[in-house]
Amino acid sequence: MNGKKTFTIADVLERPVFRRAKLAAGAHGMNHRVGWVHVLEITNVSPFVSRHDLILTTGLWLTRKEEERAEYMEQLIRSEAAGLCVELGTSIHEIPPEILELAERHHFPVIVFEQPVRFVEITQDIHSLLINRHMELLKDLERFSRQLQQETLRSTDMNALLRVLQNYTARQVIYMSSIDTNRFVPSVQPDLADRIADLYANEVASSMTADREDHLLFHLNESTAVLFQPVVCFGQVFSAVGLVLHGETPTEEMSLLLDYTAKAAATLVLRTQFLEDRLLRNQNELIQDILNGQLPSEEQAQTRMGLRLLSKGQYLFWAGVVEVEHQDKDVSQVRKESINQDVLVLLRSLLKKETLHNLLMMKGSQCYILCAKEELTLRTGEQMKKVLAHTIQYIQNYAEGQLDKVRIQAGFGKMRYRMTGTDRSFKEAYQVIEVARSVPAMKDRLFYDSIGIYQLLKAVPGIPFLQEFVQDHLGGLIVHDREHHMQLLDTLDAYFQCHGSKRDTAGMLYIHRQTLYNRMDKINEIVEGSLADPDKRRCLEMALLSYRMLQAEN
């Protein structure tokens, strides 16, 4: 493919069938690409003209009114046709000056045959040439694809893929990544590398989306541009492959080569992530030591995590658990492990993209996470929290859209300033997941500090104690509801939510005011105390929360 050009108007004029033709206007459009040839004599051409079409006509439309002639030309220009060929002597003898002026103004080539020609010979010649070139293109792409495949099977060297693309295009190739080092084949001067990196970070990265099919062209200056193709893994853009163009228009061949290279690069990125998983046994051992409370010192723990020791400032640590819940009971264990591994790789890639130091360990269907970041500002902790929330949301969306009958549950403990205290954070993360699963109102809670009073309820040692507490304060209401179906528990719960307003409580329950009064009288009679007593009210509220939580867990 190296050295091949797009077929243009200039190439058309070199064909033998055009030896008696001349260019009447639009010389600046000689580089227009020609994709096909059409014979059109109708005036409403827009529905029948595609981009890069070369139109053949006897000029019958030129015999119409001046406004209609201009509209015909404007339709061709708007449709981005390659050019127009007009045969003189059949319908017309000359092209009006205003039409040539319009074409010249838009750099739209107009080719004139001053003697009659056989349009069938032109279409046969150009179509045969285009079909042959297309077949050659497909063969070249097949060879290119095979070579990429061989390189991906041979090693995980990204530079090898980029060299294949560079050999085929004879152009500067770049690879920009948010999870790896940037690469240039061949190497470039540091100032150019910095300019391209700035362009990617400031303009390109934000424009890259996984569902975007077209390539992105960004200009470094008036004469230099970069054509980018995103590298997509798990529906996420982690990097991009690009070609540097000097005063050139991107061609279909360039786009196809970039597309093939980006897909091969995605394969390497995924394989590299899986290989990293195998090499991270020491991370598993470190997390296991944290869970067992076996870290001898903070300094040694940070060193094992790969953190540089700070002379000033401190690190923030956030520990959490991600559970992969397989709802299909018939799925095989092999399939479960494969899904768990995919989630782990995706999670690691997302955290790496966000430049968070992290330890990950998959144990069964639970992934343990420990993230660390140097506290640079007072907002670092809040920023970490947003990043973690966004990451979990992405994984949940991925599971919902791409994985069948798989649900993601996640929780994070309190942020801490020492690794040696993160064993408690993992326990808190478990509690967040348990509360989110058992209490409907808490189902979207992700962080320990957001579950409120349930921090205290989950800290109570042993379920029997809570059950006894519920029985002491709500036992009479539970028995009465079971026997008489008066919904006293729901009524009491609504009464507390409405801050003791009977009017609001009746409205919330959609019952008559007198019905509420009857229920409240029965509640006061059974609980043996006044609901106006603050201590009594707090006990009942805690008992209600405990009852709902225990009900859901059972």
Automatic annotation (TrEMBL):
| The organism's place on the tree of life at top rank | Bacteria
Tell me which species this is from.
Paenibacillus farraposensis
Q: List residues of the PucR C-terminal helix-turn-helix domain.
A: 488-545
**Gene3D superfamilies reported for this sequence:** PucR C-terminal helix-turn-helix domain
Annotated ranges, domain Purine catabolism PurC-like: 11-130
What InterPro entries does the record point to? CdaR-like_regulators, PucR_C-HTH_dom, PucR_C-HTH_sf, PucR_dom
Organism taxonomic ancestry? Bacteria, Bacillati, Bacillota, Bacilli, Bacillales
Q: What is this protein called?
A: PucR family transcriptional regulator
